[in-house]
Amino acid sequence: MAISDIVSDPSLLPVLGSSAETLEQCTKLLALLDPTANATSDSQDTVLAASKQQKHLFALLAKLRGQNRDAIFRVRDTKQSTAEARQEIDRLHLQLQNLYYEQRHLTGEIAACESYDHKYLSLPLIPIEEFLELHPEHKESDDHELMIARINHEHAEREKLEQARQELLKRKQALIAENNKRKEDLANLDQDLERFIDVCTQAFYLVIL
Questions:
Q1: Cα–Cα distance for residue pair 168/176, rounded to 1 Å
Q2: Nearest to 19 by CA among 9, 41, 31, 4
Q3: pTM value surpassing 0.70
Q4: Can the keyword NAD be found in this entry's annotation (predicted)?
């Protein structure tokens, strides 16, 4: 498999091209400097050609070093971006887990509320049919609004009964006070009668004597 098939990043393809070109230039320079291959060539021409090829090779190496440095910087930036993205993913994952936990908690709370034995269910309210006869404006109300209306009706009725009880209690207290006053008056009258009888008796004996 060729290296170009392994490396697919567009930013690294120029580096591969420069590397291949540099390798080719090195091969040319080595072939030019091979004494066995250039035994019949003019040494002066060979030196000039080698110098030219060497300068070109140095230029390619400088270019390759620059591309390699840029690639290293890009790798560092990619690693930094990857680390930041991973931290963000971890944060979002933790937040999602917290939401799942909160969802389960709220689901449990809702189930507990739905199964809770509410006190209002045991209130001695009048039957729905009787209530709707008294208040036909609630015939289109839903269950929640109807229950609130029935509780308010029961509260109002109990307030009326309490007011009536207080009035009866006041009347009772007034009657008790009036009875006590009459008892006191009767007791005083008895005492007056006893004194009157005593005086009459004494006067009777004085007249007889």
A1: 12
A2: 4
A3: no
A4: no
53, 29 Cβ separation under 8 angstroms: yes
Q: 24 phi and psi, to 5 degrees?
A: -65, -40
Alpha-carbon distance 80 to 71, whole Å? 14
Each residue's pLDDT tens digit in the chain (209 positions)? Answer: 555 556 666 667 677 777 878 888 888 877 777 666 555 555 777 778 778 888 888 888 888 888 888 888 888 988 999 999 999 999 999 999 999 999 999 999 999 887 877 776 777 788 888 888 888 888 888 888 888 888 898 889 889 999 999 999 999 999 999 998 888 888 888 787 888 787 787 776 676 65
Packing angle, helices 13-33 and 43-114, rounded to 10: 160
Query: What is the Cα–Cα distance from 4 to 23, expressed in whole angstroms?
Result: 15
